Amino acid sequence: MKLVTVGKNDAGQRLDKFLCKTFPKLPMPRLYKAVRQKDIKVNGKRAEISTRLCEGDVVRVFVQDEFLEQTAVEKQWAHEFMQAGKELAVVYEDDHMMLLNKPAGLLVHPDKNEYGDTLIARVQRYLYEKGEFDPDDEQSFTPALVNRIDRNTSGIVIAAKTAAALRILNEKLKNREIEKYYQCLVFGKMPKKQDTLTGYLEKNSDQNRVYISDKKTPDARTIVTAYKVLAEKNGISLLEVHLLTGRTHQIRAHFASLGHPLLGDGKYGKNEQNKRVGMTKQALCAYRLKFAFKTDAGELSYLNGREFTLSDVPFAADFSAGKIEL
Asked: For the chain, give me the number of helices (H) and strands (E)?
């Protein structure tokens, strides 16, 4: 038998979802059977699978001990986030969320080659050392990133410090109620000073790249990219890009498909051009973000209408100073 007290970051979950995360060795058929037989109770009373849990609820589970081995967050992570670097550029922070300025070259999440030092690991280390996150106190939640950008792209990434904030921000991002603006440098002069471009993107996971077409195909997803020319000289243009759809490598691949690859982009551009300008990472920065909620945002409603802009985009400053040219 196990007694589990529902914490703040587990509140709002359905009973079955909570138990699956808390007891990963408990098979779903056994869980459902235990609920039917009243072997799982909430606050001493019979509960349904769909019961929504509240902070402070006590869940009592009467099933075989072999199914009730808890894989605590700390055991899963083994405090591996403590191996991460401490450097973290915080643009904004409150009790619910953070905005971070990710440097080019840092992964947002672990991959097969890099596990220790990532942006999410730095966030978790930062919050752990502040006393705001302790794996021992959590059943299933860890601070998480809401959006992601490529390793060699810099700029604003959103982190959720609570489960409630993560749910709300994920929904807002999905519903395009968070506006994202980028700055980038592209080769060539754009045909218009501003435009909204539509294309069709197809992803090739084996190659870790995407392909853009002007014709719809069964496997392609529609992309919409708006841009405005901020400056142009010596065969290079500085653009502000409003990402109206958020697909993998969208900005990089879309402009490259039009004959205007980003400076420093070795995947979608040409290395001989990149060498001439001395850039090894794509000149792309998620420099501005606006919360534009159209529906209720609950405890995050205070963010509605707020806008955050990075004060310094290094490649843009270098371009303006004449340090980047063909």
From this structure: 8, 15
